[in-house]
Amino acid sequence: MYIPDDAIERLWHVCLPYITSIKTMIAHKHYCYKVAVSLDHKIECRVDDSDYEAMRGFIMNSNASHKCISPDGPVLSILIEPQSPWGNKIREILNGRVFVRFEEIMDVGKLGHILPVDHAELGDIDLIPHIFQLMYTITGLEIEASGMLDPRVSRIIDYVGQNLKSDITNEDILNLTHLSFHRTRHLFASETGIPLSRYILWQRLRGTLKTVLETGESLSRVAAEYQFTDLSHFHKAFKNIFGLNPSTFLTECRVVVEDDRDVEESVLNSGDL
């Protein structure tokens, strides 16, 4: 499977991958679609009033109330933007259903190791290709290179990435495209599969988490730097999109959000320099 050079960054345009061992879980729901797969055992899940047991993995619809447990080992979960290309394909797979077991859509015996057996010792950058491979197995879609995007959209993505800690105004965006705001929003959504405002929110949530993970700074201080009014504003946005409070992700989950040091080390080890 072809993975473009900028795939690591683009992964965070549309999803939040994380690894956790879920021994207890409160019922929750979230805006994102959810793909979850056990790494070496089975998952149990309660969705609304229905129980599902002994699953290798599942796909969960948006805003479905659920709680899952995985007492015997880790699970890789991927929360996916519903309006992204992956999200559109998952919508087709769900076909109006709230919940789909992997066993209904594939031969789970052929999945093999989703991540390397020594995944706990590897850096995020080493795990990301395996996440792409899993999503390709489920959806049949490969991630596209950003070089294929309309240059005006690429300029927006670059600008947003450089100004996440600043106020990004409509005028700022229109100066990059020289189009009306309506046409700019339509262009961005058609090229990327995600609305511009949602994209900016994803990147600010991602930037906040990444900075806290890398620096150990307080969540409230970092969230403010990324233009969240206060910690309550950040918690509300995070929980709406991802379903749980950010403290759970920071303390109980391994969030696969690459460390720049991992990227630099990977490049050095590849011999490309």
UniProtKB/TrEMBL annotation:
<dbReference type="InterPro" id="IPR009057">
    <property type="entry name" value="Homeodomain-like_sf"/>
</dbReference>
<protein>
    <submittedName>
        <fullName>AraC family transcriptional regulator</fullName>
    </submittedName>
</protein>
<dbReference type="InterPro" id="IPR018060">
    <property type="entry name" value="HTH_AraC"/>
</dbReference>
<keyword id="KW-0805">Transcription regulation</keyword>
<dbReference type="Pfam" id="PF12833">
    <property type="entry name" value="HTH_18"/>
</dbReference>
<keyword id="KW-0238">DNA-binding</keyword>
<keyword id="KW-0804">Transcription</keyword>
<dbReference type="InterPro" id="IPR018062">
    <property type="entry name" value="HTH_AraC-typ_CS"/>
</dbReference>
<dbReference type="InterPro" id="IPR050959">
    <property type="entry name" value="MarA-like"/>
</dbReference>
<feature type="domain" description="HTH araC/xylS-type">
    <location>
        <begin position="154"/>
        <end position="252"/>
    </location>
</feature>
